[in-house]
Design brief:
Strand order of the largest sheet: 2-4-1-3
Shape: globular
Structural class: alpha/beta
Helix content: 25-40%
Distance between the termini: 24 Å
Radius of gyration: 14 Å
Strand content: 5-15%
Number of strands: 4
Largest sheet: 4 strands, parallel
Order of helices and strands: HHEEEHEH
Low-confidence stretches: none
Oligomer: single chain
Number of helices: 4
Length: 115
Amino acid sequence: YQKIAQAAAQQSGRGIIPPVAPLHTLEQAAERMRSLEVPLVLYEGEGGCSFSAVRSDAKSYGLCIGSEGGFDPQEIEFLRENGVQSVWLGKRILRCETAPLTALSVLMFRTGNLN
């Protein structure tokens, strides 16, 4: 996956190649997210905020995205207790193939990384 990210970054003229991390357990993901300035989890349930409320000036972001069917409320509560902010992409529920792409696109727009 890292080779794909590198090829895509080169093809699009990006100077920064985003690192692709291996799959983690929820506990491992929460631990890793603690070191980031803005740790986020996509969640379509109550309590999430819009991406427009996410800081746009941080140096490090993390985005935790669940599998098809999303996270259950207990998992979201665990992540929140570990400092991860829940965000949502609006009223539409997206497939697990399109939600990451959409979330990354919105985050890139918010942080000025589409220029």
